[in-house]
Amino acid sequence: MTTSETPSAETAERSEPALDATERAMLDGWLEYHRETLARKCSGLTDEQLKSAAVPSSTLTLLGLLRHMAEVERWWFTTVFGGEPDVPVYSTEEDPDRDFHVGPEDTYAQALATWRGELATARDHAAPHELDELSAGTSRNGRHFNLRWIYTHMIEEYARHNGHADLIREAVDGSTGE
Known about the structure:
Elements (H helix, E strand, L loop, with lengths): L22 H20 L4 H4 L11 H20 L26 H19 L20 H27 L5
């Protein structure tokens, strides 16, 4: 892959969540649906397009959203739920929003691989646990969360950012739709 093209093979297959699933299957289904929606919004664009801010007053880009969601996956499933040390993917003390601040050296291939890796780790942390189980780690203000809350929050986080991704993608190349 060159920096000027993203592979069309990355267009994510997306399944509609079941209408009659159990609570856990429903939450898994909606989270996967929103994860793959973000992947679809990013697919087929060049690195330059993925780094394009769609609104003059904003620096928000599709590549920044993908990187941000890698950070969010790690924070909630690895750090908070799994209790592992907080090791940000992109953010630094000097630039806590580095996930959103993409530079010329940042590529879609790198961000996609990082995000997919964080998804795999998130799934591994969540799979053996029941929804009522509390996180090993705590939030920044010391609270424990049950896994159900984390799933619900992640669905909300993706849904909000997928709305941003819709607008950015439309501004970048005119594509609309889910």
